[in-house]
Amino acid sequence: MAEVIFTLLMLVMLQAVLGFDNLLYISLESKKAPENDRKRVRKIGILIAIALRIVLLFVLVSLIGYFQNPFSFLTGKIENVLEFAFNGHSLIVLAGGGFIIYTAIKEIWHMISLNDLTIDVEDKSKGTKSSNAVIVSIVIMNLVFSFDSILAAIGLTSEIENSTTAFIVMAIAIVASGLLMLFLADRISEFLAKNRMYEVLGLFILFIVGIMLVTEGGHLAHLKIFGNEIVPMSKTTFYFVIVVLVIVDVVQGRYQKKLMKEKSASE
Description:
By secondary structure, the chain is mostly helical.
């Protein structure tokens, strides 16, 4: 019993840590919905994602070999140029990473584009997507982010002999982490709304998340380009880069305030 409780606590902590990038994506993506509908979009998106995570957990437990074994028709090589062996897991992670990179670059370009200065306030209030489209995006990306955390959860619960107990423990951890996201989503979105400059930081973090997923997908597909194997970005490197980005952003913000004070004092 003590082992089950300890495993459950570990799983909840794991889901919370791995859910950071997911939560950031939800906060940024929900901004595309009409302003008066954003809270509802986040709640519905997360609640649907929790239910689908349980379904995904059941599918992975039942068919884990299908997702891990390479597809014969997607295995091959071009001598000294390219080598690959794609499986279900690698394709999902690669697609999710590619989409996140595309989203981050598109939003960053949208921020710096001078053409956007002519957009009406009325157009901004309508959002760039319908609420249902944003909910679908949140649910799909939530599942992409869930893939690795669920596989890690399966690994952590491998010591539990009773498969039913292991499944229940994983399901409880998924629901607990989902409820935590539900609790934090509005607060993070409100923080970003009040501190618009941090949106840029958030988008660059999201961009790095996409790169991490793409490298991980390439590694899972045993991808080699000109004989060089694709190596996944480690979690340690990922969090180190995030810390550096945050420190740079904070220092730059304070330095900018200092320069503005000096300029106003000289005038």
